[in-house]
Amino acid sequence: xxxxxxxxxxxxxxxxxxxxxxxxxxxxxxxxxxxxxxxxxxxxxxxxxxxxxxxxxxxxxxxxxxxxxxxxxxxxxxxxxxxxxxxxxxxxxxxxxxxxxxxxxxxxxxxxxxxxxxxxxxxxxxxxxxxxxxxxxxxxxxxxxxxxxxxxxxxxxxxxxxxxxxxxxxxxxxxxxxxxxxxxxxxxxxxxxxxxxxxxxxxxxxxxxxxxxxxxxxxxxxxxxxxxxxxxxxxxxxxxxxxxxxxxxxxxxxxxxxxxxxxxxxxxxxxxxxxxxxxxxxxxxxxxxxxxxxxxxxxxxxxxxxxxxxxxxxxxxxxxxxxxxxxxxxxxxxxxxxxxxxxxxxxxxxxxxxxxxxxxxxxxxxxxxxxxxxxxxxxxxxxxxxxxxxxxxxxxxxxxxxxxxxxxxxxxxxxxxxxxxxxxxxxxxxxxxxxxxxxxxxxxxxxxxxxxxxxxxxxxxxxxx
Length: 465
What we know:
Layout: H1 2-17, E1 20-41, E2 47-68, E3 72-73, E4 79-80, E5 93-96, E6 99-101, E7 106-107, E8 112-113, E9 127-131, E10 134-138, E11 143-145, E12 152-154, E13 165-169, E14 177-182, E15 186-190, E16 194-196, E17 209-212, E18 226-230, E19 233-237, E20 242-243, E21 249-250, E22 255-257, E23 263-267, E24 271-275, E25 280-282, E26 289-293, E27 299-303, E28 305-315, E29 321-332, E30 344-349, E31 357-364, E32 367-368, E33 379-381, E34 387-388, E35 398-399, H2 403-409, E36 417-418, H3 425-440, H4 446-451, E37 461-464
Parallel strand pairs: 23-29, 31-36
Antiparallel strand pairs: 1-2, 3-4, 5-6, 7-8, 9-10, 11-12, 13-14, 14-16, 15-17, 18-19, 20-21, 22-25, 24-27, 26-28, 28-29, 30-31, 30-37, 31-33, 32-35, 33-34
């Protein structure tokens, strides 16, 4: 009976505590403020008068509202949160008749779900989605959630496979690398071998393609050429004498052996019969050759001069030509070098010397040649290879004290004497001028100057002393 009375008393206490309880909270309220302002008044507006008015503004204040009293819930706030063995909602535990202990994510007193997304403490980079007792961070389209489950990273997605090749990935996320490899016997024909995930959700570069690379298996190159496999094609490196895409074009001209250098022939007569060995032409591929020459036979009677001999071989199959040309130079037989007179000078032509030498002597002042010799004597090297008159030239070894004594020995002495030395440029120039004068004035020799007029000048006179 006593126990029943206690239960009834407890229920009465609960009923008393049930219902709405007034709680206060901070809010903005309307405040009245008295404002003072002044205006002129009095005699002739000489004084100031004060007036007052009321103004209204918002001020911090305390507001009140009705909520369920502690430990109660429901529309009429008459349902206790927990009552003895009654279980608290959402996994809460009743720790007193009017109080639940709530798990994380739920708020007392009724263990209602806490909206973690309402504030900014959730830490989600993009979007926050509230769940019962917790929350989930989600990413916008094109992003994936990082292992921290809060931040997001750009995701380019799979770059796609390629035909006849493979792709390996470090990641599909921003900065990830895609590396492409072509299968055996295939080469990368276009695109990029390495691509990277970019911030615009795309892969850098261009997707590559693989093409069959081993094009040399069928041995397409001919005539011993080397085949080099390329991307989607091949290239032939031809041996010498071949050309074309597959080295099937014969570009080898005829070969020649025994082609002479220029030939020098000395003739003791004005003509000489000379024979030579003809060059030999051949073709490594056995093609027929057409050989022509400006001399029908390898023997001919040549006068003095230069003569060009030419042989040309033409390969019938490709029209390529090989030429052998050389000169046969026929000259008079040269003479032994002519001596230089003691105390004198030897003057000779310095042009066209291989066709002849025309020399004369002069003596230094106070010397002359012996009386059996003559200054007007020309020493000529003819075709026979011998000097006319006979060499050597006489020395100027006869001393004379005066020009008259020199004239005693040789009436022409005055025109063939020089002073002081032929090494002196003025003296040398005088001797050169005298040589040209005497050569043009000697019968039979003038043609040597008229034939080679551009060369018959004093600068080309050879003076030795």
